[in-house]
Write a structure and sequence with these properties.
The chain is mainly alpha-helical. The protein is built from five helices and two strands. Strand 1 and strand 2 form a beta hairpin. Helix 1 runs antiparallel to helix 2. The chain is globular and about 35 Å long.
Length: 106
Amino acid sequence: TLQDEDVRLCCCALEEDAVDAIGRCLSNDLEAVASQACPAIPTIRRVLLEGPSLGVAMSGSGPAVFALTRSHAEAEALRARAAGEAGWRSWVVSSLAGDGGLGEGM
């Protein structure tokens, strides 16, 4: 669980469009439990963290895992690696704003 100071730092990172800091804020309290039910989650997380990624987290109650990248090109390289090495289904998406700010290349 994110503590108050962690939440404050994440909010500041979002306000400042500091993608590196946002990547470090990604977490999910359910990941440990979901990993017991789906042992592939830690493997997926490890592969995505090998990069190029700024942060990785499980989405919701799992087992979907996502990575935050700096650019569309980095996201596409990571997607291709994950699909090629492990055969995982993966997609490159971006924010609805699509303005080159947060979410560009996610």
